[in-house]
Write a structure and sequence with these properties.
By secondary structure, this protein is an alpha+beta fold. It has 8 helices and 4 strands. A 4-stranded mixed sheet has the order 2-1-3-4, with helices on both faces. The chain is globular and about 45 Å long.
Length: 204
Amino acid sequence: MIDIYHFANPLSENCLATEECLEKLTHTVFQKARLRFIPLINEQVSAKLIQGEQSLPLMDIPYDRESLICRVILDFKAAQIEGNKKARPFLLALQTALINKKQVYSHSLITAIATQIGLNPDDFLKNRMSQEVVHALIIDQKLAWRLLKKYQVTIAIDDSNTLETNLLTNFSKESLTTHFTHSRQQLVVNTKDLVSSENAKTFA
């Protein structure tokens, strides 16, 4: 199994383009892969959250860029309660509205997107203001601190067969396609080696 994590700035146009590319590439290249979007918050805020020195206010309407990032992530985590197959399209639609269409974040905007994606509107609106989504956000930030050498926008590819994690910072379509294709070829080679080894044990 291949786990692919995109640690991203949720208000970045480049990160949005990368997420769209990953959606297309992941299941085209790998037969078994899990794609996860991990939006990052401010590094200092994240560190204090993880250490329990700071709480995250559950503001309904953000008042600056940092609070907007937090609100977008909390909405994404609320959508994720109904599964990643709905949460990823929700995040992409919200990012497209905010980044590309220059729409203003509002209660009506997220409700419309949630409905469009097929989320349960009542459950979503309730979950987005819960401590459960704050806890889920903190778990994601802990994962980022554990996997990343630097707290920055990164793609991490975790291969359970080799127990290796590769970190990518070049997000061009060509680079991602090349790396994913190489990873798939390597996975096939490793699998053949494993089968050969098991056969050798059988006939030993």
